[in-house]
Write a structure and sequence with these properties.
Strands 1, 2, 3, 4, 5 and 6 form a six-stranded antiparallel beta sheet that branches. About 20% of the residues lie in helices and about 40% in strands. The protein is of the alpha+beta class. It contains two helices and six strands, in the order βαβββββα. The two termini are about 30 Å apart. A hairpin with a 3-residue loop joins strand 4 and strand 5. The protein is elongated, with a radius of gyration of 16 Å. GO terms for molecular function: long-chain fatty acyl-CoA hydrolase activity. InterPro entries: Cytosol_ACT (IPR040170), HOTDOG_ACOT (IPR033120), HotDog_dom_sf (IPR029069), Thioestr_dom (IPR006683).
Length: about 130
């Protein structure tokens, strides 16, 4: 799994228990999956269709640094299925896992649009081809 983004837990990210608010973490995961999928599918109109069961395994507190990891599970005709793990950067303890997140590429009318992708591509490789 590739860990792309790091977040520093700040006071505004905490719940009344003074640990990381789960809703904030899910917001970060959704944003990370959207950015990853938009780049992979080369379509800025890519949206979240489905998120499977979410497994909170531990928490984070103010001052912790977490990292968000994403891995491609499958390419569909208009979709990209990912899985996600968030862990504490310093201890490597898993905070949350999401086994299945489905992102869908849309056309200008908001309908699923086939993307023609079958494997992970890196932007640097696309630039070398031009």
């Amino acid at each position: 799994m590739n860990f792309h983004t790091r977040k520093w837990i700040k006071p505004q990210d905490l719940n009344p228990n003074q640990t990381l608010f789960g809703g904030r973490l899910l917001e970060w995961i959704d944003e990370e999956c959207a950015l990853y999928s938009i780049i992979q599918l080369e379509n800025p109109k890519t949206v979240t269709k489905y998120m499977s069961e979410i497994d909170f395994r531990s928490s984070a507190k103010q001052g912790d640094i977490i990292e968000i990891g994403i891995e491609v599970v499958k390419f569909g005709s208009a979709s990209l299925t990912l899985k996600c793990e968030v862990r504490n950067k310093m201890t490597r303890e898993t905070i949350i896992t999401v086994d299945k997140i489905v992102m869908v590429a849309l056309d200008e009318n908001g309908k699923p649009k086939p993307h023609g992708k079958t494997k992970v591509e890196f932007v640097k490789d696309r630039l070398e081809d031009k």
